[in-house]
Amino acid sequence: MARRRRIFEGKAKVLFEGPEPGTLVQYFKDDASAYNNKKIGVITGKGVLNNRISEYLMSQLNEIGVPTHFVRRLNMREQLVREVEIIPIEVVVRNIVAGSLSKRFNMAEGTALPRSIVEYYYKAGDMDDPLVTEEHITAFGWATPQDLDEIMSLALRVNDFLSGLFLGVGIRLVDFKLEFGRLWEGEQMRIVLADEISPDSCRLWDLRTNEKMDKDRFRRDLGNVEEAYQEVARRLGILPEGGPSDFKGPTLMQ
Ligand code: UDP
Questions:
Q1: pLDDT per position as a tens digit, 211-225
Q2: What Å distances lie between residue 228 and 50, 112, 181, 215, 246, CA to CA?
Q3: Model-level pTM greater than 0.85?
Q4: CATH topology of domain 4-83+223-241
Q5: Residues in the ligand 1 pocket, defined by CB under 6 Å
Q6: Which of 16, 116, 123, 209 is a plausible cystine mate for 88, CB 3.0–4.6 Å?
Q7: Contact call for residues 94 and 175 (beta carbons, < 8 A)
């Protein structure tokens, strides 16, 4: 097979040219990074699990009418996606205080927020992805006010849906990061969800024990990182327990 053209290589994924115009292949690596590349490492099997978890969550979102770039999973580590023009903003939705919010306001991690908070960060690694306001985003032309209305409404729909989905399998969705892209269809432009949704980009806490089941285990050297990602997949019903023939649906908590 001819070598595919590598379009972009990030910390956890590689994007290759897709089989048809307007498509890309998203390859999930086991590499992990945190604190803006100050900490790097490998989480064995992460790429396979994140490919599956993101496939599952994006497909469920597609089904409820949230447009995404996801087309289909191709193999263990790759998925076919629509090529979009990435909006250079990380959209973070928070339900419970954790991470940078806890540090910025000196609030205890685990404090429930009276309502969900949506934050924007400018994607610029050399500046440590600064927190920005809608004013910066529109003034600097990264997105229009209409784009932002659409992004905010999609982010809140994603939050409602995923919070319920995770709650059903005994997991609290503490916070997560989304990326959006512009998809051009002739003259028409649509904003769609892009990138991935996985334990790399979400904080997921066990409902009963508050145990962390996400990348914080890697960031904070808590151990059992692979096991935590596997447990998320198992609860979502996308990790065959006794081999590929033993596929179950989500494990609902009583
Ligand atoms: N997040 C991410 N990529 C980033 C920054 C944050 O996926 O570059 C996710 C992170 O996993 C968490 C949420 O966004 O679920 C909020 O992260 P926070 O601002 O608390 O930053 P952190 O503590 O991760 O530095």
A1: 999 999 999 999 999
A2: 12, 23, 29, 9, 20
A3: yes
A4: Phosphorylase Kinase; domain 1 (3.30.200)
A5: 90, 92, 98-101, 129, 175-177, 201-203, 215
A6: 123
A7: yes
